[in-house]
Amino acid sequence: MYQDTEAHVLESDCIQLGYVDGELKGFALYSACVGSLAVELVGIAIDPRYQGNGFGGQLVADYVENERPTYLTAYTRNPSTVGILNRYSGTFPLNADKELELLAGSMNGAEFVDGVAYHVGRYGQEGLYGVSDPANRNLRGDNISLKERFPELSNPGSALVLASKVIKESEA
User: Does residue 170 sit within a domain?
Assistant: First the structure.
């Protein structure tokens, strides 16, 4: 597991650190993808005491404000990551959008299962999370787990592929 984390960190184009009162409380990793058309949120880790309070969303919002990417993408099993990206003009596959569907399908390892982009086998046979799989949780304001909404996530090695367009102030 630590080798995978090390590889994510070392292969990322940008590491963003989040501090509270001078103490590191989280970080996010970003890399260009799809021929630099989009930026992938490669990973995000937040101190458990700061999870669920918007800390991760604020990290990504600060990145978007400073770097101004056109698109954000991610591979995930975590409803919090889905929610963070969904703040930007909606996110495929939650919202039907042909442009974002094409972008998600262009992500490395993406394949469509019942109209939804997944990276099947991304996390191996055992998966990434074991018994604490975030795909068992619901999206905020929803009563359906991520696994129920996106059935391929029943396979612990699969990741949902997300794509979102960042609307610039001039486009709003």
Answer: no
